Amino acid sequence: MSHAVTLSPEALASLPRHVAVIMDGNGRWAKQRGLPRVEGHRVGAESVRAIIRTAGELGIKYLTLYAFSVENWNRPKDEVDALMKYLAHYMKTEFAELNRSNVRLEVIGQVHRLPEFVQKQLHKTQEGLAKNNGLTLIMALSYGGRTELVDAMRNIAAKVKRGELEPADITEKVVADNLYTRNWPDPDVLIRTSGEMRVSNFLLWQISYAELVVTPTLWPDFRKPQFYEAMEEYHRRHRRFGGV
Hints:
Layout (H helix, E strand, L loop, with lengths): L8 H5 L4 E5 L3 H7 L4 H22 L3 E8 L7 H17 L1 H6 L3 E5 L7 H14 L6 E8 L1 H17 L10 H5 L12 E4 L18 E4 L9 H13 L8
Parallel strand pairs: 1-2, 1-5, 2-4, 3-4, 5-6
Helix pairs in contact: 2-3, 3-4, 4-6
């Protein structure tokens, strides 16, 4: 399968505003090569760098990456510990590159569950990038779509209890305004690598009308050409929003 190294003018003219990615396949990539899983995560981080840079160059406004799910806490402790160290290290070492690319960083999920050293580094990196106005990179960390909806329901229920909201006034907008993602538009396209055909509890409310692009490419092999290909595929879809 040949990979696009340039984008067609048509795809360039109809780029999505918000791209979400389920970065899957690091473990399988490592296993295929007889390497430890952590090595898959290390090379996967290089794909993260490449995709952030590519999305920024294209002028895409929002990029949400599913970096660590609430389910991932159930992985072996040594793998989770390695991932956390990696995450803090990545946030520190990538700061200059992100800043140079005018990227700002946002985080969604149950961040309080992350180790303190990770929270501190995240906060530091976010602060340092806060003035940037290019690509908004949204990292989903300790994130789960159902957890997010439960949190939203608790917030709304508390407002009703305090008398600030009538049950009859709860609309889709009220729900959306109580999600972690309240400040950003919903994703236009959801890319999933490694060929799995499921959404894995990711942005369940927000992807209602997103185009789903599934690629067999494992995440450590997903770079600029594969991202371009996903943008071409997005362009080929005729988006109807349930209309004609």
